[in-house]
Amino acid sequence: MPPTRVLIVDDEVLVRSGLGLIVGSAPDLEVVGSCSGGQAERLTAELRPQVVLLDIRMPDLDGISVLRRLRALPDPPAVTMLTTFDTDEYIGTALRAGAAGFLLKDTAPEQLVHAVRVLAAGGSMLSPTVTRTVIGGYVDGGGPDADAAALARQLTGRELDVLALLGEGLSNAEIADRLFLGTGTVKDHISAILAKLGAANRVQAAVVAHRAGLVRNPRHPGA
Fold this sequence. Notes:
Number of domains: 2
Oligomer: single chain
Strand content: 5-15%
CATH topology of the largest domain: Rossmann fold
Strand order of the largest sheet: 2-1-3-4-5-6
CATH class of the largest domain: Alpha Beta
Helix content: 40-55%
Distance between the termini: 34 Å
Number of helices: 11
Shape: globular
Number of strands: 6
CATH architecture of the largest domain: 3-Layer(aba) Sandwich
Structural class: alpha/beta
């Protein structure tokens, strides 16, 4: 299998270099380029990365604007947002714009490499320390939402079970263990859930779970 192609977008050269060294150290990952926000759209179109690590705050062109441009490209890459703040006010906007994940810049090297692999495989990744802040605090604000509840009513009972656990921040393997299912079955359920909800990724589906009031035991920061 050819290595996963990764583009790093950050306004700080030292950050780009450091992230590049970490990601490039994995034999199955290849950093095909790095740039600031203003160059991201052109390089993505030219280099065709499968995963983009994108700084959420940049002076030349902010990460949200870059994200929207990248998501509008044909066959867009999976994009995860990078920040130094676990309470960044742009998190909710980024997730609604199609970001596949959110990672702190101080994420451990092995977790960063794992995140890139998950994103390349079509999954989503949130730093465990900010899962509750990202979804519970910035996206779903004040109690069950009627529109989200209506979306959830399209799901079967088992799909609702899966969606609720997905909203807790559990991985496919953890959901499988909790519901006594195979991981392949969980993946099939999640694919069906995304299609029925019109969600671009599991992060957006988790947002629906919170807004619909399905999540009873959200994972706390650091859990």
